């Protein structure tokens, strides 16, 4: 694996592959790699001839200075893990390379950025995400870019911008990778004390409680949200939000009539965590599975069959365009 730090180096590293018509996969990350990131790299390695992993802690998407400052960083470890998982190029640019003096352009996706994370973190968060992802796609010009369903709203935003800007890339969303006890892997988990790590189980517990209630036949949004909140109480955790929304538009739903995204965020001490799961009405598992939405991976035994999306197949309405094909 080769590490490059400038856009010019990245382009020249990829030029032979592009000339030979090989497929290029991009996995954007902010580093502190864990098995969630590695699942994206492994899938890219399976599906593409050349895999680029970007490692860039993007200041533009941090709405809290302290969060940016304490964000874990260990490039040497990340490079070893990425290489061992099949990355061919590690693109680790400086802040100045990505945002040179005079930088004045941003990408703003309207609508789907306004709820959930956008409502809590402010519009600059998704403006920062959309701008850096657009830039990374323009820099690497991959055929496929890989993202985690763990950041479900981010996937919706990136699909929207790729379609709206006619970017010639296929966006793949892969299931959330979890610890054995259900906690979604996150670079921020490293910042939790032992006590906070135990309390963080409030998030998967909330998802599991709402999933179980949905599986028992409950369809009323309020009852499902109440169950999720109640499951967090024993951990002494209050969510910043818990919402049931339509998975593609992120519009709130009144009843659980089909695949619905249950998304939540909570602070455990200083550490802000998010998680989500696709809920299905009782009896709808098989249909919804066949429909193949890129749903969150089931956890702790709850609705495992929701995670049946085959990422090599396009989602309904998904823009499919590749550089080489
Ligand atoms: P980050 O480094 O947090 O920006 O994440 C880089 C990519 O890894 C994003 O597409 C995330 O959605 C994805 N990711 C983060 N955590 C997980 C996880 N537990 N399972 C799967 N993908 C993840």
Number of strands: 9
Compute the number of helices: 12
> Average pLDDT, to the nearest integer?
89
Which bin fits the share of residues in helices?
25-40%
Question: For the largest beta sheet, what order do the strands appear in spatially?
Answer: 1-4-3-2-5-6
Write the H/E string, N to C: EHEHEHHEHHHEHEHHHEEEH
- Class per helix and strand makeup: alpha/beta
C-alpha Rg (nearest Å)? 19 Å
Unreliable stretches covering 5 or more consecutive residues: 286-325
Structural key phrases:
single chain, 38% helix, 325 residues, alpha/beta, six-stranded parallel sheet
Q: What would you say this structure looks like, in words?
A:
This protein is 38% helix and 16% strand. The protein has helices spanning 7-19, 35-47, 65-70, 75-85, 95-98, 116-121, 123-140, 152-164, 194-199, 202-215, 221-232, 285-291; strands spanning 2-4, 24-29, 50-55, 89-91, 144-148, 170-174, 239-245, 260-268, 271-279. Strand 5, helix 8 and strand 6 (170-174) form a beta-alpha-beta unit. The model is unreliable at 286-325 (pLDDT under 50).
């Amino acid at each position: 694996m080769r590490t490059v730090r400038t856009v010019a180096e990245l382009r020249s590293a990829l030029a032979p592959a592009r000339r030979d018509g090989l497929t290029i996969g991009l996995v954007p990350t902010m580093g502190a790699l864990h098995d969630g990131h590695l699942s994206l790299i492994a899938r890219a390695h399976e599906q593409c001839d050349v895999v680029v992993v970007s490692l860039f802690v993007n200041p533009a998407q941090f709405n809290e200075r302290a969060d940016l400052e304490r964000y874990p960083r260990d490039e040497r470890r990340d490079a070893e893990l990425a290489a061992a998982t099949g990355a061919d190029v590690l693109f680790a640019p400086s802040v100045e390379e990505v945002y040179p003096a005079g930088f004045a352009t941003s990408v703003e996706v309207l609508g789907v950025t306004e709820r959930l994370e956008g409502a809590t973190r402010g519009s600059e968060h998704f403006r920062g995400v959309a701008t850096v992802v657009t830039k990374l796609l323009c820099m690497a010009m991959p055929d496929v870019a890989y993202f985690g369903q763990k950041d479900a709203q981010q996937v919706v935003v990136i699909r929207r911008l790729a379609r709206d800007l006619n970017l010639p890339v296929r966006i793949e969303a892969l299931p959330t990778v979890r610890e054995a006890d259900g906690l979604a892997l996150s670079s921020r988990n490293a910042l939790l004390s032992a006590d906070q790590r135990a309390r963080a189980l409030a998030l998967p517990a909330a998802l599991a409680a709402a999933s179980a209630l949905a599986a028992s036949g409950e369809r009323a949004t309020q009852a499902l949200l109440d169950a999720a909140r109640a499951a967090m109480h024993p951990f002494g955790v209050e969510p910043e939000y818990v919402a049931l929304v339509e998975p593609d538009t992120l519009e709130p739903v009144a009843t659980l009539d089909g695949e619905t995204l249950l998304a939540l965020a909570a602070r455990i001490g200083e550490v802000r965590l998010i998680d989500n799961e696709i809920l299905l009405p009782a009896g709808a598992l098989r249909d919804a599975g066949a429909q193949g939405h890129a749903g969150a991976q089931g956890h702790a035994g709850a609705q495992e069959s929701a995670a049946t999306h085959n990422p090599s197949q396009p989602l309904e309405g998904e823009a499919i365009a590749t550089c080489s094909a």
